[in-house]
């Protein structure tokens, strides 16, 4: 395994990098305009935190099957929480319907301000590590990978690799087709990266142009990475956050210089974490 640095976004106040994009986006919306968002959980939590900090009203929509850990965290903030359907796609559809009545929709990824907020991870990496770097990040709707790719476009010594769960590789399908294409979304530990991409999302073109490579990892590989991070690094990571590490452990990432995995969040159900960590076959470094 190559030398691997970890960018620990689970240490953010909401336990996820999503707070970066949420703060960036809400800070640009007029104070008298309500905001609404849809999310698998972490972006909704980021918007709830940003609304609290900025003194805004917000409605957050998740599916009824969203992570209970993330939903419980959202409920700690004074926001209107709506749970609809069984998939992220259901939640997004409902949030867009609410936005059509006069609210500002803050997409988890299809929003230039959200993408700019996520790109601040790259700015910090530039301050923390000398190049050359291979930055490995998870990919769902593409906000994080698009932001990092745009940042890296000014850095010839940086390569960006995006990693999707094999059960929900919507971005790879969209990049291959040149536009959004519906996919079947399977069950995955990487719930934060699961779901279809909004038609016309700006992230598809940005990922196609600025992300060097897209990879997929299996559920077993994600489990191995969660276990590795917990037992060897003392780091709690949810499935989507462990996916970049999974790709590195599987030997799938061609590195240039130092490899940096963006461990994007820690919001995993304790029972799920306990089951994975205590399972047989702990991976060694």
TrEMBL record:
Residues 4-265 form the Tryptophan synthase beta chain-like PALP domain. It comes from the Bacteria. The keyword Lyase applies. Its cofactor is pyridoxal 5'-phosphate. InterPro entries: Ser/Thr_Dehydratase, TrpB-like_PALP, TrpB-like_PALP_sf. Pfam families: PALP. Keywords: Lyase, Pyridoxal phosphate. The keyword Membrane does not apply. SUPFAM superfamilies: Tryptophan synthase beta subunit-like PLP-dependent enzymes. This is Serine/threonine dehydratase. It comes from Phytohabitans aurantiacus.
């Amino acid at each position: 395994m190559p030398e691997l640095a970890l960018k620990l976004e689970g240490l953010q106040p909401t336990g996820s990098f999503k707070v970066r994009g949420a703060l960036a986006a809400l800070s640009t919306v007029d104070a008298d305009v309500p905001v609404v968002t849809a999310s698998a959980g972490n972006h909704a939590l980021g918007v709830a935190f940003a609304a609290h900090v900025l003194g805004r009203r917000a409605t957050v929509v998740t599916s009824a099957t969203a992570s209970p850990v993330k939903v419980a965290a959202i409920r700690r903030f004074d926001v209107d929480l709506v749970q609809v359907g069984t998939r992220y796609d259901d939640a997004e559809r409902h949030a867009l319907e609410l936005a059509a009545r006069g609210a500002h929709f803050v997409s988890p990824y299809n929003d230039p301000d959200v993408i700019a907020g996520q790109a601040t991870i790259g700015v910090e990496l530039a301050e923390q590590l000398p190049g050359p770097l291979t930055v490995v990040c998870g990919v769902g709707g593409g906000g994080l990978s698009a932001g990092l790719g745009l940042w890296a476009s000014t850095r010839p010594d940086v390569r960006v690799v995006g990693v999707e769960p094999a059960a929900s590789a919507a971005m790879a399908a969209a990049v291959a087709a040149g536009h959004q294409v519906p996919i079947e979304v399977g069950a995955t530990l990487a719930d934060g990266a699961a779901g279809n991409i909004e038609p016309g999302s700006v992230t598809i073109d940005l990922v196609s142009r600025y992300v060097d490579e897209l990879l997929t990892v299996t559920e077993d590989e994600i489990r191995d990475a969660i276990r590795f991070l917990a037992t060897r690094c003392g780091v709690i990571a949810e499935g989507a956050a462990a996916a970049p590490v999974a790709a590195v452990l599987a030997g799938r990432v061609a590195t240039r210089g130092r490899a940096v995995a963006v461990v994007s969040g820690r919001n995993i159900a304790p029972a799920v974490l306990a089951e994975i960590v205590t399972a047989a076959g702990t991976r060694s470094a």
